[in-house]
Automatic annotation (TrEMBL):
Belongs to the type-I restriction system S methylase family. The keyword Cell cycle does not apply. One of its GO terms (molecular function) is DNA binding. It comes from Micromonospora cremea. The methyltransferase is composed of M and S polypeptides. The lineage of its organism: Bacteria, Bacillati, Actinomycetota, Actinomycetes, Micromonosporales. Coiled coil: none annotated. This is Type I restriction enzyme, S subunit. Residues 5-170 form the Type I restriction modification DNA specificity domain. Pfam families: Methylase_S (PF01420). GO terms for biological process: DNA restriction-modification system. SUPFAM superfamilies: DNA methylase specificity domain (SSF116734). The keyword Cell cycle does not apply.
Amino acid sequence: MRQVPQGWRLVRLAEVADTALGKMLDRGKPKGLPQVPYLRNMNVQWGHVDTEDISTMELADDERERFAVQDGDLLACEGGDIGRAAIWRGGSGYMAYQKAVHRVRSKGELHLPYLRYLLELYSCNGTLKRFSTGSTIAHLPQQRFRELPIPLPPLHEQRQIVGILEDHLSRLDAADEGLAKGNRRLRAMHKSVLATLIPEADRYPQCWRRVTVADAGKIELGRQRHPDWHVGPNMRPYLRVANVFEDRLDLRDVKEMHWPDGTFERFRLRPGDVLLNEGQSPELIGRPALYRGEGGEIAFTNSILRFQACDQVLPEFALLVFRRHMHTGRFTREARITTNIGHLSAARLKAVEFPIPPLDEQNRLVALAKEQLESIARLRGEIGASRRRSAGLRQALLAAAFSGRPTGRPSELETVEEMARV
C-alpha cells in the first residue's frame, strides 16, 4: 500500500503503537508460584476473545504487570492464522497472555478497532503472509509485526471508518449466521432422509430380510503399506482414507507402491466395490463410497475396508445402507476409539445388521435417495456460493475503507442476506 488518500499518512505500526509478546510457558517442574489465567492463540478469534476455555500458568508477582492484558488492548495471533485480532473487553479480573499472542497498545494516534479491521484486510489480501516466517506453520515475529505499513487518517476519521464498517459487516455477519443455520438444517435433512429410507432394524418392513453385513456380502481389509514398498519394479496406484469421501472418490492425489507378483490382483478394485474408511474421526468412521471404475486399475490399502455385495444386494443399495449407518452413529457404536481416531475392524463390521429388501424395492429406494439427496446438495451449493460472495464482499468493503473510497455495495449485500433468509 504505497499511496494513501490526501490527509492520511503511511506509517509503521511501531510508530503509532507499542507491541509486546506474552509470557513463554515453562514446561518444567512447577515452582509453586501463583497460578493466573492467560490467553492463548486459540482464544483470540476474529473480532472476539473466546473465554470458554481458559488455562492457567505460574507467574511471579514481579511479572504480573508486564504480562497483563488491559481493557481495550488489541490482541493478535503470532502463529497459525497470523494477525487474527480482537479487542480485549474482559472486565476487571486479571488476565495474562502467552508468547503466541501480540499485545498492542496505541500511543495516541491509532484507534485500535481501526487496526483490528486493517489486520483482517491484510489477512485477506496476503499482506500478512509477506511479513510471516515459517514453512509449515506461519509465524509473525514481533519485529516484522512492528514493520507493518499503516495507512493512517486523522483519529476522528479512523472512528468514522470503523463505524461504517461495523454497520455493513454486522449485516454480513448476520447473513453468514443465517447461512450457517441453513447448512445445519441441511445436514439434519440429509441424515433424516437416510434414516427414513432405511429404518432401525426392529422397524424393517415385513418383506425385508434382516441379516448381517457378513451375510450380505464379502468384507476384506486392504493391503498393509510398508516403507520397503515405496519403490520397486511393479509400482501401481492404490487408494487410502484421504481418497474416500461420502459417495465420492477423490483421485487428485493417488499414491503408488510396489506390488510383488500376484498381490495387486488380489487387492485390485472392481466396479461395484463399496469402500469404507477403517480409521477416521469417530463421527466419520465407515465413511463409504462406491467404486465405479474411475481411475483405471487401482488397489486399496488396509486403511480401507472393501464390501462386495452378494447377488441379492445391489451395490448402490449397500452404499445407501452404509451411509445411513455412518450418519446415525451405528458405525461409531462398533468402533474402537483411540485418542480422537476411531477404528472399525472387519470383524465388528461383519456383525452389523443389514437389511435386504426385494431387488425392485432396493432400486426404488436408491432412486428416491438420489432424488432427495441431490436436492439437498443443490441447496448446499447455493449456500456455498452465497458464502463465497459474502467473503468477497467483506474483503471489498475492507479494501474500500482503507483506501479512502466510500464503502458499501448494497445490492450484493442484499443478495447474500436474501439467500440467508431462504
